[in-house]
Amino acid sequence: MLSTRIAIVVAEFNEDITSALLKGAVAYFQEKNIKIDERHIFYVPGAVELPLAARRCALTGCFDAVIVFGAVIKGETDHYDYVSQSVTYGCQKVALEQNIPVIFGVLTTPTHIQAQDRVTGVRGHHGREAACATLKTLSALEKIESVALTDSREVC
């Protein structure tokens, strides 16, 4: 891995879940000998703010990837649907427009218990999975660039 400058944006809403996502990711990176600088972890109030903060991270040019962590848990209103859709769309838009991986570590679950299951190992650990996806995506993008450089000398 040539570079591992990673920003992590964490929603404070449902903090018990989002902090567990963050801890899992940081632990995974440590296992891979990648240190996440605490100055590169940013907190926002809720999931809706994640895309804007991810965009700001991307615009700095300092990061190779951004991970966003949030937890949107279904309640009794349509709020869940609107938040889930807008956060998903916003993060994907940042990734495509800024040409940087924005790894979607936002849990969207019907219940708090199901969210907990996804950060305790009962149903995997979504924070660790997001960290793994980050490294795999960066590796794939590096390979694409390498092939493009090699093939640019020939007719594609």
Give the helix/strand layout.
Elements: E1 6-11, H1 15-31, E2 41-44, H2 50-60, E3 65-73, H3 79-98, E4 102-109, H4 112-120, H5 126-151
Structure notes:
The chain has 156 residues and is α/β, with parallel strands linked by helices. It has a single domain (6-151), classed as Lumazine/riboflavin synthase (Rossmann fold, 3-Layer(aba) Sandwich). The chain has helices spanning 15-31, 50-60, 79-98, 112-120, 126-151, and strands at residues 6-11, 41-44, 65-73, 102-109. The protein has a four-stranded parallel β-sheet, sandwiched between helices. Helix 1 packs parallel to helix 4 (112-120), helix 1 (15-31) packs across helix 5 (126-151) and helix 2 runs parallel beside helix 3.
Name of the level-1 CATH class: Alpha Beta
Q: What's the overall geometry?
A: globular
Beta content: 15-25%
Largest sheet: 4 strands, parallel
Poorly predicted sequence stretches spanning 5 or more consecutive residues = none
Structural class: alpha/beta
Reading the helices and strands in chain order gives EHEHEHEHH
Q: Walk across the major sheet and give the strand order.
A: 2-1-3-4
Summed over residues and divided by their number, the pLDDT gives a mean of 93
CATH superfamily: Lumazine/riboflavin synthase
Question: Helical segment tally?
Answer: 5
Please name the CATH topology.
Rossmann fold
Counted beta strands: 4
Radius of gyration: 16 Å
